[in-house]
Structures are given as structure tokens and as C-alpha cells.
Write a structure and sequence with these properties.
The protein has 483 residues and is α+β, with helices and mostly antiparallel strands. 59% of the residues lie in helices and 13% in strands. It is built from 10 helices and 4 strands; from the N terminus they run ααααββααααββαα. A hairpin with a 5-residue loop joins strand 1 and strand 2.
Length: 483
């Protein structure tokens, strides 16, 4: 018994070892700083900023819609369900490290009949019935593997890293939902602005048509002026119907993301009413912030899991050692079952090793190593993709204000030119074509102005999403799930 306990303790000590390679975080294949140049903004922000979506999207209606989407969105619910599944799989795998203890109690009764050697008075055979009872109570464990080579421990670590990867995936889904809701909200706001512009232009063009028709009747203007005025009117009416459709579709898309109807009071009136409620995001100077982006964190946890699977594949080359122990009592009387004299115990061990498996172990190890190379490439690609996305967002953010200022100036100039030319036409100084051209220029400039406002707002959403927003995770601080 003492020898067995010594072997058991030695096996438990060795079970802390694994055959998996030591994990080292790969060096990111991107520069340590963001690109610089005329297209990029300058910043003195901290190296690793973290902001909440409430700091960026300050519109209370948008915040309320985002909160509802985080509760109701189906994609996010799927991501959270995957986290729960991965957590359960980790716990199932971890349970393999511990022995399964069972208890068994039983009672049996045996009846026998013995015959006598002499015959009875009537020539029959005499007999005697005997009844035997047995009671047992056993507790123990069977086939408990001593994890000498770390196979179970590596498999448990792989399951744990997959769980953490699923959790990081849920953070990425959270970030995506926030960004998509904000983008859909801003698109709806812009299309409502474009709808208003089309409506204003249609009203203005109708006045021009009425004026031109009156001048035609009075013999002052030719019929060509009337037809030219009608072209602007009909184009505005066409756009009015088109943007009415877009607004309805934008609302449908927003409600799909939210997973519930959105009240009219929570919808934006225009892009102008929203853009003043958007905050800035400091990008920081250090590209290492990408290591905390949820999708990059997810890719690294998968890399860690693949690394642990190599330890599982290596351990398959070594014997499997299992223990069975049983302790209990047996007695012919229930009242005497737990007497000291009835106690008994057995302990046994077994080792198994496959001598020939057709190269399955070598193939499994090669597969594990190939999987690690695959996840390593996916990890590096995730970082490189993140770097490009942030760089593109910074380039857009660095120039959009200049573009917006130029567009505002263009609208102001086009408005003034149209007003002046309309007055000159009414006074008979200039032909109607000049007024018509300026009206079309103003209409196009106002539409481009609204689209540029959306570009500026979307650039902020893109920067929030690509930097990781308030879903930044530090893998060095990640804790394993509760045991």
C-alpha cells in the first residue's frame, strides 16, 4: 500500500509536465507607429487609449437604440451562445483531470434446497430449504488516468483557449453591432436630409415652372424655357420618390439590427442634427493597440489552442496509465455491514500502448503542427488587416474636415449665384438658361454636401470600430474562466 501511494504521488507530480512547445507571442509584422503624411492627422494622445461608445455617439436617441440592439440582436445572441458552449466544453475537458468517484450498494438473497439420503414414509425424498443474504457497500474510482505526459492537461488548455477565443469573438460581435447600428442611424439621417433637399428643390422648381409658364402666356418667354424648367422639376420629383424609398429601407435595416421596432421619436431628423453630437477619438501613437482589438485577441487565443494541441499529439506516442481503486464492506447481515472485520479494499493499475497504428500518431502530430502554422498565419493576417483598416480610417479622418469646409463654401457660392442669376432673369437681363444652370449646380452641391457629412460621420464610426472601441482587451491580463 505504501509503495502504491508513493507511485501515485510521483505520478501526480509528473502530471504537471506537458509536451507542448513553449508559447511565445509572435512579433507583429506591422510598423510600431501609424503612417504619417499629408493625409494623416497629428495626435498627442496616449499610446493605448480606450473610449466608450457613449463618448463617441452622444446622441441620447442613438445610445438608447444601441442599448436595445445589444439586448435583442440575433447575431450577438448567437455569439453569446457560442461562448456558453465553449465554456461548457472547457469544463467537460477539465473534468477529465479528476477521478470519477462512484458508490455502489447492493443486497442479494439466495435460496437453495438440499435433499436427504433416505426416503420418507411414503417413499418420497425429504429436503431442506436454505436462505443466504449478502449486503455490500463499495466506493471507488475506475480507469483514472495519471496524466504523466500532459495529454489531458494540454487538451484542457486547448479547450480553455478556445473558450477565451469565443469570449473575444463575442466582444468583437458587440463592437460590430455598435458600429453597424451607428452607421445605419447616420445613413437614415443623411437620406432624410437628401429627401428634404429634393423636396425643397421640387418646390423651388415648381415656382420656376409657374413663372416661366406665365411668361410664356404673356409672350415674354419661349416654350424652350418652360421645358428646361420642367426638367429640373421632374428630376427633383424623381429623387423625392427615390429617397422616400431609401428612408423606409434605412429604417427597416435599423430595426433588423435592433431586433425590434424603433419609435418615430427615436429616429434622426437629419444628418445636421446628429453630427454635432459626435465626439472625437484619439488614435494614439502606438500601433500595439491592435494587439488588444477583439478579433486580434481571438486569433491569438486560437493560436494558443493550436499550440496546446501539439502537446496532445506528442503525448499520444507514450503509454496511457490508469488506476482503479475500490474500498467497501460485505456482510451477510445488514446490521453488521460496517463492522471493521468486513472492510476490504483493492487497488490495481494498468498501462496500455499501441504498438502499431499505421502512422496515425505521426499524422496527428503533423496535423497539429500544420494547424498551428495556419493559425499563426491567420493571427498575423488579422494584425495586418487591422493595421490597414486603422490607417485607412486615419487617412479619411485626416482630410475629411478640409473636404467638408470646401463643400460648405461651394454650397454658399452656388446659393448666392443662383439667387443673383434668378433676379437677373426676372429683370430680363440674362437668359433663363443661366438661372437653370445655377439651380442645377446648387441642387448637386447640396446633395454632395449631405453625402460629405455622412462621410465625415462614417469616418468616425470606422475609426471607433478599427481601433477596437470600448471592447479593447489585453491578452496579458486575460484571466482563465472560473473553475
Amino acid at each position: 500500500m505504501r509503495s502504491f501511494l508513493a507511485i501515485l504521488l510521483a505520478g501526480a507530480a509528473l502530471a504537471g509536465c506537458t509536451l507542448e512547445p513553449a508559447y511565445r507571442r509572435p512579433t507583429p509584422s506591422v510598423p510600431q507607429t501609424w503612417p504619417v503624411g499629408a493625409a494623416y492627422p497629428t495626435t498627442s494622445a496616449p499610446a493605448l487609449p480606450s473610449v466608450s461608445y457613449r463618448d463617441v455617439f452622444k446622441d441620447p436617441h442613438l445610445q438608447a437604440i444601441i442599448e436595445r440592439a445589444l439586448v435583442n440582436n440575433r447575431d450577438l445572441q448567437i455569439a453569446m451562445a457560442n461562448v456558453a458552449i465553449a465554456r461548457s466544453q472547457y469544463r467537460v475537458q477539465r473534468a477529465a483531470l479528476l477521478p470519477r468517484v462512484g458508490i455502489d450498494a447492493g443486497a442479494a438473497e439466495f435460496r437453495t434446497r438440499s435433499t436427504a439420503a433416505a426416503s420418507g414414509v411414503n417413499g418420497g425424498v425429504s429436503g431442506q430449504r436454505n436462505t443466504t443474504r449478502a449486503y455490500t457497500e463499495d466506493v471507488g474510482f475506475s480507469a483514472f488516468q495519471i496524466d504523466l505526459f500532459g495529454r489531458l492537461r494540454s487538451a484542457t488548455k486547448a479547450a480553455q483557449q478556445q473558450y477565451l477565443a469565443s469570449d473575444a469573438g463575442a466582444h468583437a460581435a458587440h463592437l460590430t453591432i455598435v458600429s453597424e447600428v451607428a452607421a445605419a442611424y447616420l445613413t437614415l439621417a443623411t437620406d432624410r436630409t437628401l429627401l428634404t433637399i429634393a423636396s425643397d428643390t421640387a418646390a423651388s422648381a415648381q415656382k420656376s415652372v409657374d413663372l416661366t409658364r406665365a411668361r410664356l402666356v404673356g409672350g415674354i418667354a419661349p416654350r424652350t424655357d418652360l421645358r428646361q424648367a420642367e426638367t429640373v422639376l421632374e428630376q427633383a420629383r424623381s429623387d423625392l420618390a427615390n429617397f422616400t424609398t431609401f428612408v423606409a429601407q434605412d429604417r427597416n435595416a435599423l430595426e433588423l439590427l435592433v431586433g425590434a421596432p424603433v419609435a418615430d421619436a427615436d429616429l434622426p431628423a437629419s444628418i445636421e442634427s446628429v453630427e454635432g453630437l459626435l465626439g472625437e477619438i484619439p488614435a494614439g501613437l502606438d500601433s500595439r493597440i491592435l494587439l488588444r482589438r477583439p478579433d486580434v485577441v481571438q486569433a491569438e487565443y486560437r493560436l494558443r489552442a493550436a499550440n496546446a494541441q501539439i502537446g496532445v499529439a506528442r503525448a499520444n506516442f507514450f503509454p496511457t496509465i490508469s488506476l482503479t481503486a475500490l474500498a467497501g464492506a460485505a456482510s451477510p447481515a445488514l446490521g453488521a455491514l460496517f463492522n471493521g472485520n468486513n472492510f476490504n479494499w483493492t487497488v490495481s493499475s494498468a498501462a496500455s500502448q499501441t504498438l502499431f497504428a499505421g502512422g496515425a500518431n505521426l499524422a496527428t502530430l503533423a496535423q497539429a503542427r500544420g494547424q498551428r502554422e495556419l493559425t499563426l498565419a491567420q493571427y498575423q493576417l488579422a494584425i495586418e488587416t487591422a493595421f490597414r483598416e486603422v490607417s485607412d480610417a486615419l487617412a479619411r479622418r485626416g482630410t475629411i474636415n478640409d473636404q467638408m469646409a470646401a463643400q460648405d463654401a461651394l454650397v454658399a457660392a452656388a446659393t448666392d449665384a443662383y439667387v443673383l442669376e434668378e433676379a437677373r432673369y426676372r429683370q430680363g437681363i440674362d437668359p433663363f438658361l443661366n438661372s437653370l444652370t445655377n439651380q442645377r449646380t446648387l441642387y448637386a452641391a447640396r446633395r454632395t454636401q449631405a453625402s460629405t457629412r455622412l462621410l465625415r460621420a462614417d469616418s468616425l464610426v470606422a475609426l471607433y470600430r478599427t481601433l477596437g472601441g470600448d471592447q479593447l482587451i489585453d491578452t496579458a491580463l486575460a484571466r482563465p474562466p472560473a473553475r
